[in-house]
Hints:
- The protein has 426 residues and is α/β, with parallel strands linked by helices.
- The chain folds into two domains: 6-47 and 307-423, Lyase, Ornithine Decarboxylase, Chain A, domain 1, CATH 2.40.37.20; 71-279, TIM Barrel, CATH 3.20.20.10.
- The chain has ten helices and 20 strands.
- Strands 3, 12, 13, 14, 15, 16, 17, 18, 19 and 20 form a ten-stranded mixed beta sheet that branches. Strands 4-11-10-9-8-7-6-5 form an eight-stranded parallel beta sheet. It has a two-stranded antiparallel ribbon with strand order 1-2.
- It is globular.
Amino acid sequence: MKSDVVLDATLKGFPVAAEPCPVSQLGARSWNLLDDALAYPVAVLRRPALMHNLAWMQDFVQRKGVALAPHGKTTLSPELFRMQLQAGAWGLTFANVHQLRVGLAAGAQRVIIANQLVSDADLDGLDLLLRQYTHVRVWFLVDSLAQLDALADWGVRRNNPRCWDVLLELGIAGYRTGCRTHDQALALAQAMAASTVVRLGGVECYEGGLGRCDSAHDIEAVSGLVRSVQVLVQQLDAQNLWGNDEVLLSAGGSAVFDLVIPMLKTQVKSRPVQGVLRSGCYVTHDHWNYARYLKLVETREGLSASLQPALEVWAKVQSVPEPGLAILTAGRRDVSFDQCMPMPVRWAARGHTGAVAIQATPESWKVKSLSDQHAHMVFDAEWVWPQVGDRVALGISHPCTTFDKWRWMAIIEDDGRISGAISTHF
């Protein structure tokens, strides 16, 4: 993976007539989004919000006495990974070995693969990366005796004595992966302790599927999972089933991350505990789904404000074919729509530049549907009409499914000045 990706006309959003430019040098071009320097649509990260979010989450985990390993699947951006690590992240989290490769190249020293590895290709790849990066620690999840047998079988077939660092996953009935009962988990932990192919480093769970954006429900549901994990951890400790001198306890999506802190701080008698929160979407936040969950976090934590939306996709008004309807130059290929339609949040009239040119959109501007390359925005024809050539910033929900539509994103200042860029590696 190249350390400094070259931006050129092969990438969406980069102007065809511009000379290629390394990611690290884009800010030196003195371009401004409002000068129409880039080709629309274009995905941008607002730098002030981005830096605020990095600092806010790091302060949150430090106050709570736990560590942060942001989930890298959100952005899969080495530039953002380095920012997160420089801000103080303990490590990074990934979903698979392909993503792990990007994180290790970006400098991660500790990584949790929050997933089960079962295929030869993944195990071959992880083995290769561990031989290339001899100073790193990587843990992945195990949730069944069948998976443990597959790991042992790989070692025999490859004549490889590798002993993997793993975490036992406790799951939730009807949801994703993970042992469903304590009896299953205890039997698996005992088998791992007797195995020569794994070292049991700790326990992991994922609480995100329990969230309903109802604080009373979410507190009760997540607290039940937390208590279940705590009981299991005490059982494993009583039987001395750990494979390392420190126990890792990990959880934490991006919606109800405050509610798993008690689990991450579970104490055991035999050795120290490191709690690791894995929230990933905090780095850019969003304008709807995580925003509504965050209001509940703020209430529970007694906060007046916390994370800020940093990710926007800017489009141009390309047609106003009838009263009350404007067609924008961004569609399903450009912006997430799996949780809700993108939301017009800011706009700048054609030809207007500078910070004062960027205004909040009128409340009546709404995206009612998306085509592959177009957004269909309705508006109140009796008030402000968008004009052909106007610029509209679309706010998003679920950053993960916007990031994977772009190979790069510009970093902008509040006045639209382009001060940098990031690359992605999906």
